[in-house]
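Record 1 of the preview.
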Amino acid sequence: MAFDRRRKAFLGSLFVVAAVALSADAGSTVTGLTVAPHARHAPAIVLHHRDRFATSLNWSGYAVTGAPGSVTDVQGSWIVPAVTCSSGPNQYAAVWVGIDGYNSNTVEQTGTDSDCQNGTPTYYAWFEFYPHPAFLINNFSVRPNDVISADVSYDPIRQRFTVTLVNHSTGLTFSTSTKVNNARRSSAEWIVEAPSGSGGILPLAKFGTASLGQDYTGIGPTSYATVGGATGAIGAFSSNVAITMLSNGGATKAYAAPLTSDGSSFTDTWESAGP
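->
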């Protein structure tokens, strides 16, 4: 991977779930996968896109778009946001990086969730090759303010996607790869999401402000992508899109601030739970 991290030993585990073969390697004590029971991290429901701005019912953050087959890598980093919980329905906030999903029906992604489950703050790591199930990464502890980096890459020779997640605060690393049919590879994303359940988009947890990119985490080069053979920060691509999350009624749920001067970093701020 392009950003610096300590590689761990390959353990040779093989998981076959939902007709997807996942070869997994893990570092330290990270072992095992569990199907995520609560939520899916779905493609963007885009309401409006004009110039470099878009609105969505479930995404907030940034995307870079390209021609089909042009996106081969996306790198991101963030500080795990702490959530404020109260009584009421469970709420969810996912921070992730990925390929696809902005203008396609698959998403190859990995990230962390900061949720409110039964009124209690809950934090965990996951990956998902949507539309296949999301998987929790067992024994990969996630805490508020941990520094996380992630990479999603595509190998055109092996025709496989690899997702890698690193917790720089604990030293844990996880990586897995698989082949995804019909992946368009036409967008790269750095997203805060209101995940979806069986009944639709779930309430967005009150995550305050999430900080993404190397200017906040010190992990570089992030947020970077490789599109059409060119590698650069979000701001280096004229096709970058700032996404604001709206409720069904048009109220702002979360919004991405302008990129920092080097085009690599931004903050994303919670406004309301929605839906």
